[in-house]
Amino acid sequence: MLHGGLAATEIFSDIMPSLSKNRKVIAVDLQAHGRTADIDRPLSYEAMADDIAALVKHLGFAKADVMGYSVGGGVAVCTAVRHPEVVRKLVLVSDRVPARWMVPRNPGGNGADGSSRSG
Fold first, then answer.
1. What residues does 89 pair with on adjacent strands?
2. What is the CA radius of gyration of the chain?
3. Dihedrals φ, ψ of 67, to 5°?
4. Nearest CA among 78, 85, 86, 67 for reference residue 4
5. Is 92 in contact with 68 (CB distance < 8 Å)?
6. Domain definitions of the chain by residue range
7. Count of H helices and E strands in the chain?
């Protein structure tokens, strides 16, 4: 579980008991939030996504279901894009996904904007 900006894992305290009845739940304080140590690197979705992928691997999980709220949702999506091998499912709550992580759909052979594309 990945919290929103300017928050910490405690925002999930009300739902943790019910979620943890049937699964292992790990709540993570993202870089520069909660109890994380101050580190000398820029704050970015990509860096935090790499942290989450490394944590999943470090804990010995083949894949994880990742739930993110707000900024945590952005980190969750970025984790799935950069490290699809560690993400089984995504649950996004109140998230805004940056356009650079979107894959345009191409229904009926047309471009994402509805125009015809050749080649």
1. 65
2. 17
3. -110, 130
4. 67
5. yes
6. 9-101
7. 3, 2
Cα 51–Cα 55–Cα 56 angle in degrees, nearest 5: 120
Q: Which residue bears the tokens 């709220």? A: 69
Residue 44 Cα distances to 5, 19, 61, 78, 115, angstroms:
12, 28, 24, 10, 34
pTM: 0.81
> What are the DSSP calls for 52-101, one per residue?
HHHHHHHTT-S-EEEEEETHHHHHHHHHHHH-GGGEEEEEEES----GGG
Cα separation, 117 vs 26, whole angstroms: 45
pLDDT of 115 reads: 44
Model pLDDT, residue 97 = 73
